């Protein structure tokens, strides 16, 4: 069930319904988002007719255990696109006959703003002042997690302002489906550290040059590498050259779980660029140097923290002993040991305890050394250093491209390799969608691929298995 209400505003109309309290900035910050946006659009003379809608999304009643089990059995292993908002058709909310920009504010049952939705506006470019006004309210909406601009005209200023909103908020999902930017600067959204987890850029006319800039933001040295989990680039103009850049990014990216490049212009060559990094590949001199550099920095930081905490614990211990002596006086000496030997043993024992305590504190703070090419992920063959592959990417959508049987055979090689090297903490590929290509409708490779992927999910023997290696 959904409760929907409407508030409309036209910038060139002097409405008498806005109360005097809306002119106060303090009160506007405490107002609901739809009230705030309506009032500030009038105050700052937004050049576009704005309609602010409000929707409350009610959670469905909890399912029984039997219903949950049936739901899991029917649910697919991979999603085709990022989750879409609950509002699909908003034409019945139109209060005018003229064109307008509809801004939907979606709340949960606790009256928390969870999503901002702008959709189906092609009359003009979304005004920059509107995005700036939204940015004023965003820091006060900590439950806002999704921002959707679907099928709208946007420009580079929209992207820049949206990037500012990302930095100021807890937004995890950005959807810009069917919203074309001539300059193609979608990579700006990945340029700064933020909470962004899911990015959907379907039907945005993204070519290989734009894909190269997006892929560059997914490298290990970039802020987005540590946060972005899903990337949807479906229905664009990406060719094998763009897939090459994505494959290079996946060499050291260890956070991206889901990649959708369906309905593009990718052939077997482009798919192979990604398949190559999902299995064993040779490390370059730059990658080896980067690993050594990061390990030296890790050891340096570890040593600095150890010395800091050791001195801190020694100072605390000396203060505690001084306070104890002031209360109890000098301790009596044992007849079997002289004063010097007792002091030596006491100092050695205390120093060992404090050292262990400091090392434990440092390990708890830093953890073990983490790197895509750490010794746990590398093997030496014929004097060369290889990475065993990217085991983080789980879902890969290659539907409706130009793949042939060659890609099916290459995919089987990948899952067999991941079967050998997969450990308990690694998953590897769970689902690869290749329907709609120039591939056979049914072949024995499909069954083998599905079986290996199911084994990686269930972590147990499947019917017909003799043995299932769980580690290298």
TrEMBL record:
This is Leucine-rich repeat-containing protein 71. InterPro entries: Leu-rich_rpt, LRR-containing_protein_71, LRR_dom_sf. Residues 1-24, 55-80, 324-346 are annotated as: Disordered. Residues 55-73, 335-346 have a biased composition (Basic and acidic residues). SMART domains: LRR_RI. The gene is HaOG203468. It comes from the Eukaryota. The lineage of its organism: Eukaryota, Metazoa, Ecdysozoa, Arthropoda, Hexapoda. PANTHER family: LEUCINE-RICH REPEAT-CONTAINING PROTEIN 71 (PTHR46984:SF1).
